[in-house]
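Hello,

Our lab assistant flagged a job as stuck in the queue for most of the afternoon. It eventually completed. Since we weren't sure the result was trustworthy after the delay, we are filing this so someone can double-check. Below is the sequence as submitted and the structure that was eventually returned. Let us know if re-running is recommended.
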Amino acid sequence: MNSHSSNFFSPLFVKPAMKTVNKHGKIITAATKVFAKKGFFNARISDIAKEAKVADGTIYLYFDNKFDILLSVLEEEIGKLTEQIKNAIADETDPEKMLAIFARKHLTAMKKNKNLAEVIQVELRQNDKLVKEFRNTTFQQYINIVSDIMREGQRQQIFRNDIWPGIAKRAFFGALDEVSRVWTVSLETNYSLDETINQVITIFLSGLLPDKK
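-- returned structure --
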């Protein structure tokens, strides 16, 4: 075997395996940050590409347009939360603990990803047709977890029967959504995660009135 053939089979000439790069995930993360910082309408595809460290054209290999990116951010993140919460409460029978689990999962995710919290708080309230459709599908599935918990609590005679689950789910999510603002990029706070969860659950389950002796 000549020197050329021996070099060909040398480990030095073996092409290393290509490192898998999740560009889709990088773009989603970058877009979440850009939307949180600039707002959806002020953000540009080039801003997202720069943050993700990819070429502008690469964005269009994965997404049709800016709205497609926004909906993907919401779909993927809310979808993951829905699955996590459903798995976490699957074996739980106490409705009060189920609500606490929902609160913990949601607030933990918002505290961990402040950019996502900002996007949900602002962009989810848009009146665009695509966002409205999202609110009526994926987002409804998410907050319907709360109304399902409410109905189970009523069935067990733990929760009051005169409370409408459809209103309760919005009130509960609204409280969590607003409370999560204490961890957004623009506001510093000393509230711990556990303290915040306990306050929300106590207010929601016990109200503001003192116990009657």
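-- support follow-up --
The delay was a queue issue, not a problem with the job. The result is valid. The CA atoms of residues 32 and 91 lie 33 Å apart. Confidence is low (pLDDT under 50) at residues 1-21.
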